[in-house]
């Protein structure tokens, strides 16, 4: 009597579908270019703010324009934070909806891991920040600063040290960062809305509803949709809720699939993919780098000033949250998911890979700077030092860990791209059974 073949335990971070691999690769290439531009913008701002011409930088940041009647007479720095980042969150919302409606994460088992990891990467840094900065009056307001991951900055680091990072890890990082962004926008809406005006917020539902009806009917004319989007953004801004929330609401209104209700023969990519192709280059190439330029410029005050900042409990809380709390939360959540679902890490990967990826998630640049400005308006210089220090430290540590594994990644990359046949799909993807669309 032959022994039965043991069933294979489910794998964490297993290889996804070939179509999703191609799509993720295209997204990451665009975000990598955006990450390089982000770094350029941040470095230029930092150099300028510490040069003899620092006054000109501050003058530029404070130039105001816009209609006063609509509460839109804003500085350039505020336009970058409230306006341009709304485009960033619109693209993030499109990507998140695309992943969970039509991507590999439409199955519950695949979606659960990055969601749990993202939540762990929010909770643990926040607790660590509160623990280290609890003795400072008003410091608790900054608890959310070390909770976000900057995908553009992280991918810029990967472009240098992780060209052969396996697709599963890249997809996990992208999904983790997008879920982080969604959690961040919820946090901003709930905890950083100082004065709420209900009437403008209710009025925003009108252009949002019309926008939703039009996109659900597959209308893509910019001259119809753009004024509605601007009206929604303007009214959300006037309500006191941070205007970037409008970007996510608009994104969630956009359909991912054609004819998605009945699954008929016309089912296929919907307006979400169309809008993502249009707006991702604007987000990665313009919105985020310009925001970085207007937000990263902080006068360090030389070595003494930097040393003084690093002794601030708020700074220590942010740095520890990004460098220690973020990877600890992600690793703990992923390990718990593996334990309670009886899943094994994919055979090509090791837990040290998860450690390197978790360290990379400690790069919290863009959204961390935004939350810092909201938490400590007008007094956020030390927060900027903290975010820059924590993000750079996390990037360097991740680079060391991932670089040590580069030979293993190169081997996985060769397996994933080998044996292309007449249909252009590697055999390693064809030999795997596709997962069902349901949970």
UniProtKB/TrEMBL annotation:
This is Na(+)/H(+) antiporter NhaA. HAMAP family: NhaA. It is found in: Cell inner membrane; Cell membrane. It catalyses: Na(+)(in) + 2 H(+)(out) = Na(+)(out) + 2 H(+)(in). Na(+)/H(+) antiporter that extrudes sodium in exchange for external protons. It comes from Nonomuraea corallina. Belongs to the NhaA Na(+)/H(+) (TC 2.A.33) antiporter family. The chain crosses the membrane at residues 32-49, 69-91, 111-131, 143-165, 172-192, 198-215, 282-302, 314-338, 350-371, 383-402. Keywords: Antiport, Cell membrane, Ion transport, Membrane, Sodium, Sodium transport, Transmembrane, Transmembrane helix, Transport. The gene is nhaA. It is a multi-pass membrane protein.
């Amino acid at each position: 009597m032959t022994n039965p073949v043991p069933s294979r335990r489910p794998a964490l971070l297993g290889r996804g579908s070939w179509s999703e691999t191609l799509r993720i690769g295209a997204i990451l290439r665009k975000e990598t270019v955006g990450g390089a531009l982000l770094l350029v913008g941040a470095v230029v701002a930092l150099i300028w703010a510490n040069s003899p011409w620092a006054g000109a930088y501050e003058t530029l940041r404070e130039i105001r324009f816009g209609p006063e009647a609509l509460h839109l007479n804003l500085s350039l720095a505020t336009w970058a934070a409230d306006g341009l980042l709304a485009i960033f969150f619109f693209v993030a919302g499109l990507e998140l909806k695309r992943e969970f409606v039509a991507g590999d994460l439409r199955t519950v088992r695949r979606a659960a891991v990055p969601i749990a990891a993202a939540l762990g990467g929010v909770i643990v840094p926040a607790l660590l920040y509160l623990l280290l900065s609890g003795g400072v009056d008003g410091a608790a307001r900054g608890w959310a600063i070390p909770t976000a991951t900057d995908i553009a900055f992280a991918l810029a680091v990967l472009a240098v040290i992780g060209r052969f990072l396996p697709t599963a890890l890249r997809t996990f990082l992208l999904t983790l960062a997008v879920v982080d962004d969604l959690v961040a926008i919820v946090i901003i809406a709930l905890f950083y809305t100082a004065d709420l005006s209900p009437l403008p917020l209710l009025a925003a539902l009108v252009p949002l509803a019309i926008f939703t009806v039009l996109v659900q009917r597959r209308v893509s004319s910019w001259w119809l949709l753009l004024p509605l989007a601007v009206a929604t953004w303007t009214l959300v801004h006037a309500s006191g809720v941070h205007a970037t929330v409008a970007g996510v609401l608009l994104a969630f209104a956009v359909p991912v699939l054609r004819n998605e209700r009945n699954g008929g023969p016309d089912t296929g990519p919907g307006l979400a993919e169309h809008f993502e192709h249009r707006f991702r280059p604007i987000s990665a190439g313009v919105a985020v780098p310009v925001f970085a330029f207007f937000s990263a410029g902080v006068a360090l005050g030389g070595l003494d000033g930097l040393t003084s900042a690093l002794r601030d409990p708020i700074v220590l809380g942010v740095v520890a949250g990004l460098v220690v709390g973020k990877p600890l939360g992600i690793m703990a959540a992923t390990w718990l998911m593996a334990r309670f679902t009886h899943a094994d890490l994919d055979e090509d990967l090791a837990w040290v890979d998860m450690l390197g990826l978790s360290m990379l998630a400690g790069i919290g640049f863009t959204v961390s700077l935004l939350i810092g400005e909201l938490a400590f308006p007008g007094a956020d210089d030390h927060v900027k030092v903290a975010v820059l220090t924590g993000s750079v430290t996390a990037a360097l540590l991740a680079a060391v860990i991932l670089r040590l594994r580069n030979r293993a990644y190169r081997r996985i990359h060769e397996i994933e791209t080998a044996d292309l046949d007449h249909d252009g799909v590697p055999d390693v993807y064809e030999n795997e059974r596709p997962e069902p669309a349901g949970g």
